[in-house]
């Protein structure tokens, strides 16, 4: 049937009839029986016109009978080689599976060790940072604590009133003028030194408060919380919260962990209200994903009275700290910061549902390591339902917020105020004014209580600018638009974002 040297399996493989992908193993066997065997063998395997799939053993016997002795020997050799190759392949597969299992087991065993090494490194670095911070604070305290600012008047040479010589009078007049100019220069230098002293003193006070807060915190022992966050150093402390720099062992990145504490002395109703407020903030913040908004990564419970929100870590300062060190920013720098804030507000008003921040202020604008500005703290933010219309939504939390940055409509007492994104436009205008002039336009030297009692913001009908400033008229006009007293006339976020002042052209 086959010529010498022919491979019966190769011959079969050439035919689509026998290896059609639609054929079942039974079909294949029948086809082989039909076309590869003598007629008497085929008849023995095909009964009464009804095809019945033979067994592999039967097929093998039939093939052996239909082939010559040389062909049988060749087939047996090839089959034996195939069986050896198959056994070898199975053994190699088994070896690889064992090797893979060993690698997986080794990886699983090394995981705790790797985490321990990362933890130890982070702990060591953080300890060094703590020691350096305390040493620097002690050095500054020793240095700054002994600084005294004194103004000394050096009495000049008086003229003899009885001399009566005009030449002497003129000479002494020039001496006095020269001395007065010298004193003014000394005064300017002294004021600059005093300003630097006040800045350093302020930094020292804040750092000492931070260190004291860190030493008193129950989370200062490098705990690993929620099985992934290594608490490192305290960043800041508020009334009922602490913010720690931490390291995420799962995502391998630094994060900011904000700890919210519920006062054990509170009533159950107040506790539940606080928790509802925090969960509401989380539900709003977690949906906001934008380059100029601090990301909220996670939230978890620590104990019945404490829970934690995990935020994007911004290694730079906040705008409030920047303004304490540099009270007046160059207009273009301030404009760049404002532009980024407006970008965040636009995102919040183009999404559905819209979000009003309601607490936009320098302390809630952070900077990352690249100097990118990011808006944070959505504790007072409002969700704007789609059906509120152009009149805005009712303000249900009157009295909350930071009064220097809120518009007049938030202080309306005769009826329930209605607010919109125009609240954030007013706040952005106040922030911009602060960056350019080193003070807030309304109630700068007043307390929140005094602002409320004296109706400072309600009476803020028109913004005034300091004389002698180098700020452009375009910037002043932009601020006037943001601080338009009448809410109906004030532009909303999407409108102010199109303002011509917010365009940048290459000079």
Descriptive account of the structure:
By secondary structure, the chain is of the alpha+beta class. The chain folds into 4 domains: 8-67, no CATH class; 147-216; 224-312, Phosphorylase Kinase, domain 1, CATH 3.30.200; 319-502, Transferase(Phosphotransferase) domain 1 (Transferase(Phosphotransferase), domain 1, Orthogonal Bundle), CATH 1.10.510.10. The chain is 48% helix and 12% strand. The protein has 13 helices and 14 strands. It has a 6-stranded antiparallel sheet. It has a two-stranded antiparallel ribbon with strand order 1-2. β3 and β4 (229-237) form a beta hairpin. The model is unreliable at 1-25, 35-42, 44-51 and 158-163 (pLDDT under 50). Residues 72-109 form a coiled coil. ATP binds at residue 258. Pfam families: Pkinase. This is Tousled-like kinase 2.
């Amino acid at each position: 049937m086959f010529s010498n040297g022919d491979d019966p399996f190769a011959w079969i493989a050439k035919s689509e009839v026998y290896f059609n992908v639609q054929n079942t193993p039974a079909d294949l066997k029948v086809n082989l029986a039909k076309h590869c065997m003598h007629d008497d063998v085929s008849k023995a395997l095909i009964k009464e016109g009804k095809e019945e799939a033979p067994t592999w053993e039967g097929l093998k016997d039939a093939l052996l009978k239909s082939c010559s002795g040389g062909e049988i020997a060749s087939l047996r050799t090839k089959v034996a080689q195939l069986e050896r190759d198959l056994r070898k392949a199975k053994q190699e597969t088994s070896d690889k599976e064992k090797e893979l299992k060993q690698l997986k087991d080794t990886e699983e065993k090394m995981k705790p060790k790797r985490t321990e090494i990362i933890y130890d490194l982070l702990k060591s670095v953080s300890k060094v940072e703590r020691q350096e911070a305390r040493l620097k604070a002690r050095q500054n305290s020793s240095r700054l604590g002994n600084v005294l600012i004194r103004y000394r008047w050096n009495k000049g040479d008086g003229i003899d009133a009885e001399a009566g010589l005009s030449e002497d009078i003129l000479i002494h007049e020039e001496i006095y003028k020269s001395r007065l100019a010298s004193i003014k220069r000394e005064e300017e230098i002294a004021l600059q030194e005093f300003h630097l002293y006040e800045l350093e003193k302020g930094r020292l006070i804040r750092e000492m408060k931070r260190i004291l807060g860190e030493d008193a915190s129950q989370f200062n022992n490098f705990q690993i919380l929620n099985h992934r966050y290594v608490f490192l150093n305290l960043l800041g402390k508020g009334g009922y919260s602490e913010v720690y720099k931490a390291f995420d062992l799962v995502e391998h990145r630094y994060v900011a962990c904000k700890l919210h504490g519920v006062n054990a002395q509170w009533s159950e109703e107040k506790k539940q209200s606080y928790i509802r407020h925090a969960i509401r903030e989380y539900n709003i913040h977690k949906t906001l994903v934008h380059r100029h908004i601090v990301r909220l990564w996670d939230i978890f419970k620590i104990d019945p009275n404490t829970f934690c929100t995990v935020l994007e870590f911004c290694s730079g300062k906040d705008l409030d700290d920047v303004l304490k060190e540099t009270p007046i920013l160059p207009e273009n720098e301030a404009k760049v910061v404002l532009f980024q804030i407006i970008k965040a507000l636009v995102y919040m008003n183009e999404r559905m549902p819209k979000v009003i921040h309601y607490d936009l202020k320098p302390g809630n604008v952070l900077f990352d390591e690249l100097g990118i500005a990011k808006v944070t703290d959505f504790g007072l933010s409002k969700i704007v339902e789609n059906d509120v219309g152009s009149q805005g939504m009712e303000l249900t939390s009157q009295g909350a917020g930071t009064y220097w940055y809120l518009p007049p409509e938030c202080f309306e007492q005769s009826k329930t105020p209605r607010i919109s994104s125009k609240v954030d436009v007013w706040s952005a205008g106040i922030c911009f004014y602060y960056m350019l002039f080193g003070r807030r336009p309304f109630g700068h030297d007043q307390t929140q209580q005094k602002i409320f009692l004296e109706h400072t913001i309600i009476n803020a009908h028109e913004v005034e600018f300091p004389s002698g400033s180098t700020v452009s008229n375009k910037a002043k006009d932009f601020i006037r638009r943001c601080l338009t007293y009448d809410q109906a006339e004030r532009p909303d976020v999407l409108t102010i974002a199109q303002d011509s002042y917010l365009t940048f052209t290459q000079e």
